[in-house]
Amino acid sequence: MTDSIHSEKFLILDYGSQYTQIIARRVRESGSYCEIHPWSMDDQAIRDFRPLGIILSGGHRSVYDPGAPDLRPAVLNLGVPVLGICYGMHLLARACGGQVDPSGKREYGGADIRMDGPASHRSPLLTDWLGTAGLKVWMSHGDHVVRVPPGFVATAVSQGGLLAAIESVSRPVFGVQFHPEVDHTENGAVLIDRFVRGICGAHGLWTATGFIDYEIEALRAKVGSDHVVLGLSGGVDSAVTAALAHRALGQQLTCIFVDNGLLRLHEGEEVMATFARHMGVRVLSVQAQDRFLGRLAGVTDPEIKRRMIGHTFIEVFEEEAAKIPGVRWLGQGTIYPDVIESAGGKTGVATNIKSHHNVGGLPERMGLKLLEPLRELFKDEVRRVGLELGLPREMVFRHPFPGPGLGVRILGEVRKDFADMLRQADHIYMEELRLAGHYEKIAQAFAVFLPVKSVGVMGDGRTYEYVVALRAVATRDYMTADWYPMPVELLKKISNRIINEVQGINRVAYDITSKPPGTIEWE
Ligand code: XMP
Q1: Count of alpha carbons within 13 Å of 331, Cβ hemisphere only?
Q2: Which of 338, 478, 480, 515 for mutating ligand 1's site (highest number of atoms within 8 Å of CB)?
Q3: Residue nearest to atom 23 of ligand 1 (CA)
Q4: Closest to 124 measured CA to CA, from 196, 217, 19
Q5: Among the four 184, 214, 326, 399, which has the fewest Cβ within 10 Å?
């Protein structure tokens, strides 16, 4: 199997920073494969990993705390380049004989830094990045290095006099007090790239095409002549999984698409058009609207609605899958953040939303083996692979959609007439966002149906109809989110169109709640 994509890989040891996943994404953006492992990974495992370079994340502890996560000897003994970020820098400094001031607090904020240290030393990591003018960085103002270890030099200092970066003069070992991985650090991605390509000499082997070629061979080798079943939801992850599995396995793949009556407008037709008609994928389309809506009648509690939709989905999926002869595998759109979370990795970053239906428990019950070809990818990489596989851009860049669909966007009882009104309103909203060029700037946007009536006037008459709320948020991790500052003119246009075109709606509201204290969905 051609496996050049994994032949240069980086090890990221996680010390509990909320930013660890972002470090990994930056390394991937520099074109190299990397994995996040807990800081406690043992020496043999570190050696067996054969990293081209190692990055130590930040963390919220103090290196002198009893029982604080420590540095595995292999990290420095392997002789590969090491970059320690914040807590990682403190560990390196202490291990090499320097001193850290344990202030004990962990505060972040912007800081201006500039080059420092002996004129005779040219930092291969910082010089070109930091330049003579200095840069703004996102800095931890907690513990910090106060004495540089023997054989090391200071390379950057903050305006407040804090040691911002150190490095060894004889080995490729670097420490930075700030967080180059976050957006608040000016050109931070360039510094990570300097480490990955410049210091470690990586060749940028991690590409979407490389991944596709590799995964196609891997899928074929794994599956042999067996048959695979996959639940297609209209979400990005399952769509890309299906496209990849189809390219590898052709007619050995059958997708099941369940219309639960809670999908977005035209979603069913679009999935069938793209996959069945256009790509020639075998798709069983199941019309289960009545079954879902029947079960949901009279149910108002959000969690009970979620559970009902989930259980009914599994039931329908199982019935359909049982009709396919010779199925041995279940394909799933699991992606890397899901893997990290379920491995119990304490990255602190959001439990990433699964845009595919949760079919937990199904593989065991049906005696199927799991096939998860995207489990090494971050969302942005999934999208790149999707585009490369020829999926339409609108599908690949679609906002996340929760498994229970409109079921949690119709507050209280779910009814077909409510779902129909919501679908139309949501469609108008998305259409206008795309037209105005805002859709891809927003992490997630949708309409919510409020089952309350309010009074209005239209023409000469008084109306007494339902309310729709519009939600749009900016977020990276979906754990925290800001409401999106939608241009007023655009809101005006969307509101006018919804009220004029959707019968039954006479009022539109815009949600200006951030998360926290709100959640992104209303239920
Ligand atoms: P909240 O509302 O918790 O949403 O701020 C965070 C992200 O998760 C999605 N979400 C779900 N996804 N099943 C899913 O597959 C669910 O039950 C569910 N609830 C929320 C939500 O759309 C947002 O992207």
Answers
A1: 30
A2: 478
A3: 520
A4: 196
A5: 326
CA of 330 to the centre of ligand 1 (A): 23
Instruction: Please indicate, yes or no, whether residues 380 and 426 belong to a single structural domain of this protein.
Output: no
Q: What is the pLDDT of residues 58-117, one digit of tens each?
A: 998 999 999 999 999 999 999 999 999 999 999 999 999 999 998 767 788 999 999 999
Is the peptide bond prior to 517 cis by the omega test (within 30 degrees of 0)?
yes
User: Is 86 marked active-site?
Assistant: yes
- How far is ligand 1, taken at its centre, from the CA of residue 223, in Å? 32
Cβ neighbourhood burial of 173 (10 Å; 0-12, 13-18, 19+): buried
Catalytic residue among 8, 37, 86, 320: 86
CATH number at residue 353: 3.40.50.620
Q: Is 90 a catalytic residue?
A: no
Q: Which pair of tokens denotes residue 291?
A: 């079954």
The count of structural domains within the chain is 3
For ligand 1, the distance from its centroid to the CA atom of residue 441, given in whole angstroms, is 19
Which tens digit of pLDDT belongs to each residue from 191-248?
Answer: 999 999 999 999 999 999 999 999 999 999 999 999 999 999 989 999 999 999 999 9
What range defines the domain where residue 474 resides? 415-510
354 lines ligand 1 (CB under 6 A): yes
Does residue 222's CB lie within 6 angstroms of at least one atom of ligand 1?
A: no
523: Cβ–Cβ under 8 A, 6 or more apart, which residues?
Answer: 302, 305, 408, 409, 411
